[in-house]
Write a structure and sequence with these properties.
The protein is α+β, with helices and mostly antiparallel strands. Helix content is 31%, strand content 33%. It is globular, with a radius of gyration of 14 Å.
């Protein structure tokens, strides 16, 4: 069996006025859909911007990305990485979410149903991805 694991990261600009309820709806739908499609991911929200990593079978990841591009809750979507992957960066996360507060000083990790937060910093997690997300989160 060949390895069809694919990794995609994009950034985008949030629609003005995007509410916590909007985000909760996105995350709940994402988790449910991702579990069915064997997709894992991580979404970071830094004030007006999003960065998301999606991993799974290539056809599924591309399908999810196509739906994301059409979603009116954000704009200016730019694919910054798309590559085959040997292993998942966050294998136990159907979709986790990190939000930086409005002042840019603190952040909140929202752990979805049963997703362990401690899997973010496993020894196997690719350091370049951790660095990319850390840099995005610290943007002012």
């Amino acid at each position: 069996m060949s390895n069809d694991l694919f990794r995609l990261i994009y950034v985008s600009t949030a629609r003005p006025g995007l509410s916590e309820e909007d985000m909760s709806n996105v995350l709940n739908a994402s988790q449910s859909n991702n579990e069915e499609r064997y997709i894992t991911g991580y979404l970071a929200h830094n004030r007006d911007s999003f960065m998301q990593l999606i991993e799974g079978p290539r056809a599924e990841v591309e399908d999810v990305y196509d739906r994301i591009v059409k979603d009116p809750r954000h704009s200016g979507i730019v694919r910054i990485l798309a590559e085959k992957a040997e292993a998942r960066a966050f294998p136990r996360w159907s979709m986790n979410y990190f939000r930086v507060d409005k002042n840019g000083h603190n952040g909140t990790m929202l752990v979805r149903r049963g997703d362990p937060v401690d899997s973010l910093m496993t020894a196997e997690a690719p350091r370049d991805l951790i660095y990319t997300f850390s840099k995005f989160i610290r943007q002012s």
